[in-house]
Amino acid sequence: MSAPSKYARPDRRPVVIAGASSGIGETTALTLAAAGYPVALGARRVEKLDDLAARIRESGGEVVVSHLDVTDDESVATFAEKVTADLGDIEVVVSNAGRTEPGKIHEVGAQRFTDELNLNIIGAQRLVQAFVPGMIERQRGDVVFVSSDVAVRARPFMSSYAAGKWGLEGMVHALQMELEGSGIRASIVRPGPTWSEMGTEWDDGDAADVLTGWIKFGLARHPHFLKPQALADAIRFVVDAPRGVHVNLIEVNPEAPVEDRP
Is 37 an annotated catalytic residue? Predict the structure, then answer.
């Protein structure tokens, strides 16, 4: 029997999920843990992570929890050190932390605009800086960035969110070229409209104005939204791909309701 290749992927692949406290991140954690991946949950709302971790353990999964604020250099560095000590070398990073607030660009203060960019794009770069150097040394790893269809179809009244996701995808495309031949796969999962906590804290009037704007510009052609499970399944598909296969971009959109025949 021939010896395993040095490029072979290990059976145990610890995963970091940033923004794991709800929505796509929460469902991805449950999905990957059920598939046998040890998972490290990171978010600011640690109390929600504890509840999620209990559900994973009850199902037989391996999980650790640590506070993570991707807008803070020290928080990211501390998180990376802790979860690596707890689970071993991190093989997969899912960059999912994000937020948007409603508002017209000319009415939003510069600090709020900057804060959203800090979370939605620079936070992702901090995760790259924390975990990719080790992956390069091992010549393997996956980094999956959860983007949004606003990166290719900008939506009005979402302040810096569209700018952040456009910038995120530009960064990832450059990263893919920089990592070519290294054994690390950088991938984008681009959701269309999805049910999540994002927007649930908005004022009802603001939310109605945003939706009206989407309809006006043809960005809400039907009422169906994705469930987070659809994106979790896409993320699993990306990281499950065998070595030699790079799923560099998946866009997932809700199917329109089937129309009644006349």
Answer: no
